[in-house]
Amino acid sequence: MAKTMLRLPIGIQDFESLRIDGYTYIDKTEYVYRLVNEGRYYFLSRPRRFGKSLLLSTIKALFQGKRDLFKGLAIDQKEDIDWAEYPILHLDLNTEKYDAKEKLENVLNDFLTKAENSYGKMESETSPGLRFQGVIKRAYEKTGRRVVILVDEYDKPMLQAIGNKELQDEYRATLKGFYGALKSMDGCIKFAMLTGVTKFGKVSVFSDLNNLMDISMLRKYHNICGITEEELLATFDKKIDELAADNNITRDECIAKLKNMYDGYHFNEYAKEGIYNPFSVLNTLNNGDFRSYWFETGTPSYLVELLRRHHYNLEQMSKAEVTSDVLNCIDAESNDPIPVIYQSGYLTIKDYDPEYEIYTLGFPNEEVEKGFALLSQWRVNFSNATRTIEKYVIEEA
After folding, report:
1. 119-136, pLDDT tens digit by residue?
2. What is the C-alpha to C-alpha distance for residues 75 and 181, in angstroms, rounded to an integer?
3. Cβ neighbours of residue 272 under 8 Å, at least 6 residues apart?
4. What is the DSSP letter of 90?
5. Residue 322: phi, psi to the nearest 5?
6. At the topology level of CATH, where does 27-221 sit?
7. What does the alpha-carbon distance between residue 26 and residue 229 come to, in Å, rounded to a whole number?
8. Could you write out the three-class secondary structure of 335-346?
9. Where in the chain is the domain with CATH 3.40.50?
10. Which of 210, 225, 232, 334 is 20 to 30 A off residue 29, Cα-Cα?
């Protein structure tokens, strides 16, 4: 069978380069349109490698007024998009390994210095929070347009400091002051969105940001990242046939195997359809092999540390029953690892009892379930599996 010439965007997180270079794009711009027209401040939590960075890059291109990149997409048909260029402050916290206080300081200083080179600085602005406020204000005054603020992986410093209370307290204090600018400079801001894996709350960085709308578990944004079955079949029809042929199975068997391996993520209790893991699906279609691509990229060190520290029973974890308060927010002082495990994508919503408002969690699919079985060899106490665990730990940088 001749191979289909379809460029799969594995690892590509920049919307402009993806569109210019002709890579396949699953159109999520209807959700982007909804975001920019229905509100101003958003937070989205999704697991790693689920398309959060590409989503922010798409929003950035929209506010840069690059309409040519959106030709043929849903948002291009909307008559009330002005396609004007706005000042954009885009902070990506995914670029560093946060194992020392100065690592976060260096990233914020680099971001703010570059912004100040464009919009100016006042000597009285010494802390990251004050500098951020000043940049937002002057960007608005200089351009005459309110500012767009995009923050990718806002929580990475906090996550990588799990198990180090002193360092986490340092990061928490720094980030609370920094993100506080989103509230104090409201009149200068057109749109703001923060993405991450987790949502830290209570005494943490989100405690003062009550103007952010958390869309992570809203039904109307359930499909904003990842791949639905409809999108899978419509976009990759011929690639599925090729995958079936490569594995000597029928098309129906191939679709069923894709579903069992990579589908099953539910971010809302009433969502009928599951979401496919985009990283694993794209790699499977590209390589012609069914493998645990997402899980094999490594178990984040913060998750391993959390499980090891609390000696959590993995078999019990796969049948956890929790309330919405547990799923929606992580208390940095809590001993319960379930919120982090759920928000990191290793558990998902399996059932919901509306009378008692109880969620039943479980592994989303075969890839994750087999990965955890291999990771721990299903030993009751996670700390007994240290040698196996460390093989799969990654230090994200």
Report:
1. 999 999 999 999 999 999
2. 30
3. none
4. E
5. -140, 165
6. Rossmann fold (3.40.50)
7. 12
8. CCCHHHHHHCCC
9. 27-221
10. 210
